[in-house]
Amino acid sequence: MTILILLAAILVLIGLISWAKVHAFLAFLLVTMGVGFAFGMGPGPLLAAMYKGLGDTLGSVLLVIVLGAMLGKLVAESGAAQQIAVALIQAFGTRHIQWTMMAAGFIIGIPLFYNVGFVLMIPLIFSVVYKYQLPAVYVGLPMLAALSVMHGFLPPHPAPTALVAQFHANLGLTFAYGLLIAVPAIVLAGPVYGRTLRHIVAVPLAGFRVEPLPESALPGRLNSFLSSLLPVLLLVLVLGLQALLPATSWLAPTLTFLAEPAVAMLASVLVASVSLGLAQGKTYASVMEACAASVKDVALILLIIAGAGALKQVLVESGVSSEIAAGLQGTGLPPLMLGWLIAAIIRVCLGSATIAGLTAAGVMLPTIAHSHANPNLMVLAIGAGSLLLSHFNDAGFWLFKEYFNLSARDTLRSWTMMETIVSVVGLVGVLILDWALKALG
């Protein structure tokens, strides 16, 4: 009955958004209330869960998305994104732009959380799209595939890091195995699959469309790269210092503070306001106006993400995720495949990759204790499962759909399919690596 109710809720959500053309935020609220009552929650607990979901979800992404939008607006309007696009195309040519974008996403996806990397690189993607008249999805998907794989597979991202601790895995080995699996997953889901999507027509958010500036008006190339990638550089520097210095160092509390993505984004916006604004002859008022305009571009996205968070919280507090996972323990599947499957099903039902991964870990802990499954590979199997079939209840789905201004159908064909390829290739890679390690002794 639980599965049937969840399936009905997902179908209703899809129907409201796709066919009835109800705004996604309203659709989420309606479906969330219906699901809560269907699972026996009273009005008080239901509303409390919705408020918690709304608050927790916005609390975790609001600063990053808004500050990222401000940085993106400054990068776009100053001509820095145009300068970076010119440099990339000159270096690699439009023929290899997919691989260029994939490599960039892979590199910045290691230290950056997904939302940070997404909003940071969107202006760069759109700059290439507009300047060279290339299909937006074709250009952007390889980079976002790389960011997604890093988020789901590898430490220091939240879910993989927590899974390493829960399974008492080796952080270094998990990272090394993860890289071996991540590369083919990104290549197949990004450049290879992306070639089939050239015909998708996408008109990205107008806020990121900037008329090309004459070369003499562009900021310097070094300034453009440093200002645009400052969050990456700051976090890499901080994480490097954290790895080198002992936890008892007097610098440790400061580094912990600076390692927060929101802090790095705030510092980057302040620097870019000077380096790409005031230093380029812009007035203080025009710089602040650009920051204000960027918030308007992401306001609806934030509402939709909040609505998805409310639904997720109601499903979590109703005990649905635990009930589904417990019912799968008696399937007799190999532990690595079972971990992937549990994470995948919870991901499809709840939308959150992090919740799916952590819930699956709790279910698999007793299983892995009585089996010979490699804990490092179990982290990766669950991480791969947590990325499967991103759809209407996933904040990442809406980020991609709204920023690229796609229809629901085209988002399913591009984003959802890309995430599914990553998940399945990840599972295959885990199973092959498990076989190879056993064969080697």
Automatic annotation (TrEMBL):
Primary location recorded for the protein, binned into one broad class: membrane
Molecular function GO labels: gluconate transmembrane transporter activity
Source superkingdom: Bacteria
What subcellular compartments does it reside in?
A: Cell membrane
Transmembrane residue ranges = 30-51, 58-76, 96-129, 136-154, 174-193, 225-245, 257-278, 298-316, 336-365, 377-400, 420-437
> Keywords in UniProt for this one?
Cell membrane, Membrane, Transmembrane, Transmembrane helix, Transport
Q: What InterPro entries does UniProt report for this protein, alphabetically?
A: Glcn_transporter (IPR003474)
The answer, when asked if Transmembrane helix is one of the entry's keywords, is: yes
Please identify the protein, giving its name as recorded.
Answer: Gnt-I system high-affinity gluconate transporter
